[in-house]
Design brief:
By secondary structure, this protein is of the alpha+beta class. Helix content is about 30%, strand content about 25%.
Amino acid sequence: MQLTPHFSLLEFTQSATATRLGLDNTLPPELTAAAVATAEMMERIRTKLSQIAGHDVPIHVTSGYRCYALNRALRSKDTSDHIRMQAVDWSAPSFGTPFEICKALAPLIDRIVIGQLIHECPAPGRLWVHTSSRLPERAANRVITITADGARLGIQEI
C-alpha cells in the first residue's frame, strides 16, 4: 500500500529483527491514519531536504511502525512513538550525515510540522535521524541529541 508518493506501508513495517524473531509487525488497521500522517511528514522533510540540496534527496527508512514485541526486542520503551506509527528512524545519505540533516531541519520544525527531531547516536556506524509527528509533552524535548551518555537539548555534533 502506497501511503504517499515516496513512502509505502511496507517501508514503515518491514524489519529484519521482526523476521529473525518471527514477530508479526503488521500495522493494525486503526493506525492507518497515523501512518498516512507520518508519511506526509516524511514527504515534507524529503521535499525540504531536496530544496536545500538542489537535487532529489531520497530517504531510507530504517524503522517505522513497531509492534510491542518488536519494540521491546529493540530495547525501546513502551511509550515509544513507533508503537503508535508516529515515528520514523531514517537517513538520507545523498544530503549528508544525520548531524547535517538535523542541523538543516532544526530551525524548520514548525514550518515543516515535525513534532520531534532527534539526532540519535547509539553506536558508531549506526546513525540515523528520528522524527516524530507527535509533539512531546515538554517543548524543550522537540529537538534533542541522544548518545550513550544520555539526552542533550539541541542538535549536538558527536
